[in-house]
Amino acid sequence: MLPIDEEPHYASEDVRGGSEERVVRYVLGISLGLAITFLSATWMTGAITMP
């Protein structure tokens, strides 16, 4: 057990729970782009078909 005055220091490789891959960024970016595209297409289609 550590004395009260000392803080535990751990290496970042030891405590990291996830991986450093950037797959999540790509998935979120693609999903955001698709959502914007489909919502814009729905809005434009509705606006065009209104009398």
Structure description:
With 51 residues, the protein is mainly α. It has a domain at 23-51. The protein contains two helices and no strands. It has helices at residues 12-15, 23-49. It is rod-shaped, with a radius of gyration of 24 Å. The termini are far apart.
Attribute tags:
51 residues, mainly alpha
Topology:
Blueprint: H1 12-15, H2 23-49
Number of helices: 2
Write down how many β-strands occur, each being a DSSP E stretch of 2 or more residues: 0
Unreliable residue runs:
none
Q: What's the helix-strand series?
A: HH
The profile of the biggest β sheet is: none
Q: From the alpha carbons, calculate the radius of gyration and give it in angstroms.
A: 24 Å
Strand composition percent: under 5%
